[in-house]
Amino acid sequence: MRSLLVTSAVLLLSSVFLIAQDSSKPGGEEAHLLALESAWNHAEQSKDASALGQLVAATFVYVDYDGTLMNKKEYLASTANHDVQQEQINNEGMTVHIYGNAAVVNGIYRDKGLERGKPFSRHGRFTDTWIREKDAWQCVASQSTLIK
Q1: Do residues 142 and 126 lie in contact, with contact meaning Cβ atoms separated by under 8 Å?
Q2: Which pLDDT does position 81 carry in this prediction?
Q3: The CATH number of the domain where 101 resides is what?
Q4: Using alpha carbons only, what angle is made at residue 28 by residues 23 and 34, rounded to the nearest 5 degrees?
Q5: Quick one: which of 42, 44, 55 has its CA closest to 105?
Q6: How far, in Å, CA of 109 to CA of 148, rounded?
Q7: Comparison of pLDDT for 80 and 40, the residue scoring more
Q8: For 47, phi and psi rounded to 5 degrees?
Q9: Distance between CA 131 and CA 36 in Å, rounded?
Q10: Range of 129's domain?
Q11: Which residues contact 33 (CB under 8 A, 6 or more apart)?
């Protein structure tokens, strides 16, 4: 009887542990949005304006770390700029909050590369606002701020 209680307790604790592990992993829409954020980094790093154009809405507004305000056309042109060669773009600590057909993704980014032949390394926070229309997510607003 005692071994049955111990076994039951171990199974119960194991189940609680597994459930806790699974709840820490993003699921469904959260995971999809995090994948879109990664795709964005990859497209920006490889200067793929076509892929970026699919991720951002026609009404997209971007506020860069230096305060520059751009619409979709200006943003896509800026990512194709050959004065900047992105070597690495990484996001970390991202959180996703979904509000029906809208979502906000916050996180920290690090990027480095060459700008006009000079090395740069930036560390900042970003907030991206996504809207889901016709079962597809598109970013409608993005803002980044440098961390000193």
Answers
A1: yes
A2: 77
A3: 3.10.450.50
A4: 90
A5: 55
A6: 13
A7: 40
A8: 55, 40
A9: 12
A10: 2-146
A11: 96, 98, 103, 105, 130, 137
- Judge whether 111 and 86 are in contact, CB under 8 Å: yes
pLDDT of 140 reads 98
What does the mean pLDDT of the chain come to? 84
- Digit-coded pLDDT (tens) for 5-41: 333 333 333 333 333 334 445 579 999 999 999 999 9
Residues 76-106 as b or e (16 or more Cβ within 10 Å = b)? bebbeeeebebeebebeebebeeeeeebebe
Instruction: List C-alpha distances in Å: 25 to 28, 31, 33, 91.
Output: 10, 8, 13, 16
In this predicted structure, what is the pLDDT of residue 26?
58
* 113, β-bridge pairs: 86, 120
- Domain count along the chain: 1
pLDDT in tens, 83-118: 778 888 999 999 999 999 999 999 999 999 888 889
Q: Which two tokens stand for residue 62?
A: 């971007």
